[in-house]
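User: Fold this; tokens only.

Assistant: Input:
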Amino acid sequence: MAEEYRRAESVHNIVLEGREKLSVSGVIEVVSFDENELVIETSRGQLTVEGDGLHVEKLSLEIGELCVMGSIESMIYTETPKTRGFWSRIF
């Protein structure tokens, strides 16, 4: 189980089909949701999706997947994870 959780955190993909179907992997948590806005925590930061008539078709936090249907108008990352590279740790 812990290995699956780490794997879900490490991979993050977004597929948008015709601005009507959004598939997201690397989902950690759904922060808030209504028919006009969806806020999720992903392995790459917080993602806000705005649109009309949004509804969740599929949600599996065990494998980190989410599928949303509706008219999708925007997707915005409001945070990014702070990663430190090799050189920044040395200096």
